[in-house]
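hey can u check if this looks right to u? its 86 residues, i copy pasted from the old doc so theres a chance i mangled smth
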Amino acid sequence: MQKLKRILLIGTLIVCAACASAPKGIDDLDLAIRGASDYLNDNIPARNKIAILNMQSDYTALSEYIIDELIANAVNDKVFSVVDRA
């Protein structure tokens, strides 16, 4: 469980770092999100359940976009079962 938490934290940090580096456009952000999703796919054993939690920032719409895209990637990649955040 500790390893899973660490991996999720690293994935979140990767996405946040990509946002903090002032991407040139939505394409750069989407590439960073895809990279984080690929990292999670490669480092969390298949068929595990995951929950992608909310993150807080000064840019609510951006945070929601990142979370929604991570969830969409996880669902579409069919590596994990995604658990509702509620």
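The chain has a mean pLDDT of 80.
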